[in-house]
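Hey, can you fold this?
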Amino acid sequence: METLKDKTICIIGLGYVGLPLACQVAAKGYNVYGFDVNKEIVDKTNAGICHMKDDELQIKLSQAKGKLTATTDASILKQCNIIIVCVPTPVYHNFSPNLEYIRSSAEAIAKHIKKGDLIVIESTIYPGTIEEIVLPILEKSGLNVGTDFHLAHCPERIDPGNKRWTIANLPRVVGGTTQEATDAAHAFYSSIIDASITKLSCVKVAEATKIVENTFRDINIAFVNELAKSFDHLNIDVVEVIKGAATKPFAFLPHFPGAGVGGHCISIDPYYLIERAKENGFTHNFLVLAREINNSMPHYTIQRTIVGLNQIHKSVKGTKITVLGVSYKPNVDDHRESPSFKVIEELKKLGANLQIYDPYLPKFSTVRTLQEALQAECLVLVTAHKEFLQIDLERAKSAGVKLIIDGRNCLDKNKIKSLGIVYKGIGRN
């Protein structure tokens, strides 16, 4: 009698979501194919080399040897029974959803789909995408959803660099185009994840769930970013205020301000809901405002830099400034939608004598070591890498640093000030 473990799995897309998922599925005893159009990623995966800087994932990839095979050949799909789509869903320059990777994945699946197959979309999409875009493409195969194959959504949940919450223990939700699809997806994810898998009433609810999760964070971050701007005028330490408010044991969830919001989720997903609602006659004024506030933070970081430079009688033009951090979050090499790029671009336009250093992204760094990076009059910290939290502040002063812009409010401001270095945080003076 055939069981789930007799099924062959294909993961479409071996990026920040797909590769960890492929390794997790392999670890649970399945035979897994990873399909990606990027030959370099495929070759590295087959060689057991993680194409991302992630030590934990590297170990898991090594352990998946013999169970995980990567390929650029889409015909492998006809050998698989469960196909999971983990491709990017970015936005265009006007912030409208870009679903070209979803469409191309669906078209590839439609060429090879068989009776009994389960198709799951993990990519973040707006409500209605599966029923209005994916399903019609798949049914061009001549097979019908519900009777011939199952189609469901299980929105990805992954936090690169988070060692507490991993793909193995994060609860998930599933919703299908039919109850049978929901049940099939639930059974599969229950077999690979050691956490609760919640069944939702329909696929559209599942699609909306992921958007709401990340939009919730975006709104709360916007709130504290606006507080930071206000408190800079009022000379109040916003971090101390937030920590004080967080002592209330209910009805408050601390979020913290910073130099900008990055990553493929928080900075992108709200637009999927904003644009989808607009198509259906509703305007999300609150969500739009939150995006505007968060998008303004790299520029505000530059404003804080200008204010700080004025205190030491300098202008941006000609001043040797080092930007610390390019990735969008600490201790990873993920630079998708990173606010660092906007900070760097603006400093260049203002004529700074600019240096860039990120120990996780040497390809974007203009200096090779932190010691070299400290050879500047001004440091602008954009990413709170552990290496930056351990900066020898006395050495920085000796290297000529006169101003530190703490874009993540993560440094010891009192020690910095005691050394005679000007400190400017985001909502901290």
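Oh, and this one too while you're at it.
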Amino acid sequence: MNKRDHEIIPLKLGMTHCYLIRGGADYVMVDAGPPNAFKKFRQKLEQQSIDPAKIKLIIITHMHFDHVGSLPGICRLTGAKSAMHYLDRELVEKGKIIMPGGIGAWGKVLTPFLWTIKPVVSRAIGPVPIDHGLDDKHFSLEGYRIHGKIIHTPGHTAGSVSLFLESGDAFVGDLAMSGFPRVTGPGPFVLGDDLEAMKRSWQLLLDEGARQIYPAHGKPFDANVFIKYLNA
């Protein structure tokens, strides 16, 4: 396992934790936050004296509104290219808003609330163009001077991806979480398509050597948390 030779900068945009990863002089960004988060994004860059043009690639972990909502404005400001898995890409480019189903009792309680906000979200997000469609093959980030790759990790959605770095840092979007709406510590996201597929994706990340998990909701946590749920 390589030591960490990159910088990780968290960017909380509304309800979503996005991340900048610096390799050399440039950055790769993970997720783009919900609608209307562009102003906050620009302010955070100014506070940290980050040149927007240094952001070269924006990886969208999956299609849900709180990850892709501010992508158009961020791409215009930075000039960055966007990438996401082809299974989610088509829906985003058509402007289709898909709400996840509930996993477990708490997830099923939350599901009706999502349907109440769907009309509002639909008005806030139109079709969003994506520059690159990813497939099931690992996508290397060496061209961005980052020792890592994008891995297809389905479960929350069919096209969910994670960014895995050789240091053991894994940016998983909604494959797992440690904050609201989860209320019992780090573990499975309480909303999604397929819990068993999530578990297979967790095992894939562990097999790759994941050590630290960076979720879109909540604080980073130890990857060994996955073992608890895999053995349950």
